[in-house]
Amino acid sequence: MSILLLNQNNTQLREQIEFALAEVEGLFAEELLSDLSCVNTLVTHVEQYRGKMLRPTLVLVSGMASAAGGDAAGLSDAHRIVATVVELVHMATLVHDDVLDEAEIRRRGCTVNELTGNEAAVMLGDYLISHSYHLCSSLDRPAINHLIADATNTVCEGELLQLANRNNWGLDEQTYFEIIRRKTASLCGTCCRVAALLHEAPSEVGDYLYNYGEKLGIAYQIVDDVLDLVGTEKTVGKTLGRDVQKGKLTLPLIHYLNHSTDSQRQQLLQIMNGSTSPAGSSTRGAELLVVEQMDAVRDLLAPSDSVRYANDLAASLVKQAKASVASLPDTGCRKLMLDMADAVLTRQF
Amino acid sequence: MSILLLNQNNTQLREQIEFALAEVEGLFAEELLSDLSCVNTLVTHVEQYRGKMLRPTLVLVSGMASAAGGDAAGLSDAHRIVATVVELVHMATLVHDDVLDEAEIRRRGCTVNELTGNEAAVMLGDYLISHSYHLCSSLDRPAINHLIADATNTVCEGELLQLANRNNWGLDEQTYFEIIRRKTASLCGTCCRVAALLHEAPSEVGDYLYNYGEKLGIAYQIVDDVLDLVGTEKTVGKTLGRDVQKGKLTLPLIHYLNHSTDSQRQQLLQIMNGSTSPAGSSTRGAELLVVEQMDAVRDLLAPSDSVRYANDLAASLVKQAKASVASLPDTGCRKLMLDMADAVLTRQF
Asked: pTM higher than 0.95 for the full model?
């Protein structure tokens, strides 16, 4: 569901954005259409990843907020194209995130179906990336190509830094923030800056908007990480506990390791170590083990204030994001951006 | 070794190109340099893939052949940048080709080391792709960005078409050629066309050069496929038999299946089927099996003319590639392009 649908204010603006998002979906499908039916079949598979359209929404609201009228009249075809480009980039990262490593495949057994095999996932992701740059170059504005490619460079660095710190139980907060700033927040910030650049808004407007997107992106990732740890699958709508399974320390765990007793720390590390080593051969057995491990992690965290610490930090970043757009003209669209930032915390979208 | 080193003619031109290729290597390293040491460590891993620099060489010789003087004076910084861009693209595809599917991982056992794990390979490949577009956008020429992205779209389609035809023992020649035209030849053709476009050569020069690169690319891939089947690792310098192991029918096998007796066809299919199903748990056992299977395939093909058929087709494509540059000015560089095309067949580089 879109980040905007649950907000009851600004009905007209929300409708304009929903309309533009539908156009983005059309451009997305059009760009990926191939003369090869086998490619089109795989592309339909991508639809399972279609989510909240956070990044295209950031392009659209930033485009509106930085335009003279502060509404959809400020959006050009170029905004819809850039919105499609960033969604293609984001989809590619989701598809590539699904590529499994050897240890995981062994643990999960033989159930991974052919369509979602590793090689198909890699090639499909590459097809999405290639089309994102292809569509972007149709804008005939090299500066935009450069900004988007700059952001994707940074996203890849974030992913590589995260990979390099897998099973690093000494990961510090600073490195954690460096990872999520690069892998998530840089693209969010770029979405907002590019939208302003497209109608030649003053550079400080681009800076304010970049800062808004970046802070919102960091907050979004913190909340995502918290939910992966202590959310319920019914609410979040995806498999949880993946970070622990992949040996990824996130903010609540880093805080816990730094603020608990030796014995508590040892207990958590024992659980983390247990979850990242091959565990049994049957898929069903492995799934049960994940549930037990996640329950054990939650039991350990419950009496601590580590989850609240992470949520507080996210809230403070949302405040910073909102402060950053305070200098923009006081339009309905600016109000919408403030609501969007708040929605990251309640995560009802 | 570079495609040019074994050619004893045109010493001065070859030296100019070798010099430009060294500059390309410098740009390659410069573009990938990160402020994160973990990224730089992984990037050094890419050097193991550094090969014949076929694609950058195509950019450079085409840039020289389509310039007024027919030598390195016709090369601009933009040529060296595009040469680096296409090498980045090619390296990304090599790194992503190394991502293994479940069946293979199971067959190969647990020997895949951490550095070359699937997830690192995917992210490293993405980093290379992203930087290729990033560097390309620095040219400030959207038409070039568009042509390169068009080519990478087509490369991905070729890879996906190949994947869709894995274990398809009824694959016909037409589809085989469609696969290699897309996955290999389109980028080679684009290398040549872009080089001409960079100094505004007449569009028919771009067309001639594209055709040269495309035909050379198809021939190159046919020879590559033949060597994977009947070459020796010592000569070719890489693990062979991978196509059979991956259930990929290539030209000699397609020809054999269409021109042999029922009993011969059954024998080949039995071997092919045997090689693509999980085979034993130990790595050593699996390796021995591959050698035995490849020997069996070679024994079956030896009395047939299927390998010669494929080589003859490659030779005819090289002729077409050479004919395509016959209309260019008669310079030493054109002569070099003819030699390069011939070198694809002898494959002594």
From this structure: no
